[in-house]
Amino acid sequence: MTELAIYDMDRTITRTGTFTPFLIHAAMRLAPWRLIFAPLVIVVMLAYVVKLIERRTLKEINQTLLIGGKLPLVRIRPITESYADFVMKTNVHQGALDQIAEDRAAGRRIVMATASARLYVTAIADRLGFDDLIATNSIYGIDDIVTAKIDGENCYGPAKLRMIEAWMAAQGLSRADCRIRFYSDHASDAPVLAWSDVPFAVNAHAKLRRMAQSRGWTIVDWGL
């Protein structure tokens, strides 16, 4: 039996979301003049809230506004590294670090499954000691040019479960031969929580807390 411990990232491991702060962090170092587009970023977020655009479109537009539609990977990599250092110093729950250490000590394979962009999450996952990463992927052009366009699905909601299952298939892992723990803060991860053997509602907002109480999922708070 293979033991997997799968973690969401934003507001599960971290205290706050990481995508927009990453874009601001990158804009300040790549092209500070792009911060004049910050009001448009807010408009795009409002368009998502009222369901005029989908989540992947929000990400693609805001990344284009703040850091550009195409960037050489060699320019962005040092920025993803400095951002990961910033996240580790300021934005990680100690309870998450403790749980990751406990799962590792128990011999579990530690996997991150996040809607955030692999572009910057790889450096964070490395610092946290994750064995594997499932994340939203970017389309790359020739000569390692990273674009704002998402490759495949945005790793969110039901798509996250599909991407976890695809990763398991690629790794040669049968669901029947795995015992899976899953940690998440948000109701959008209900498909993965229901699919897992040991679901944890972590730092849960009201909707997920109600769902966890009704379904008997363990509720924990790493923010205390």
From TrEMBL:
Q: Which UniProt keywords apply?
A: Hydrolase, Magnesium, Membrane, Metal-binding, Transmembrane, Transmembrane helix
* TM regions (residue ranges): 31-50
Where does the record locate the signal sequence feature? none
Which InterPro entries is this protein grouped with?
HAD-like_SerB (IPR050582), HAD-like_sf (IPR036412), HAD_sf (IPR023214)
- Molecular-function GO terms, alphabetical: hydrolase activity; metal ion binding
Q: Which NCBIfam families match?
A: HAD-SF-IB
**Family annotation (PANTHER family):** PHOSPHATASE RV3661-RELATED, PHOSPHOSERINE PHOSPHATASE
Write down what this protein is called: HAD-IB family phosphatase
Question: In which organism is this protein found?
Answer: Sphingomonas montanisoli
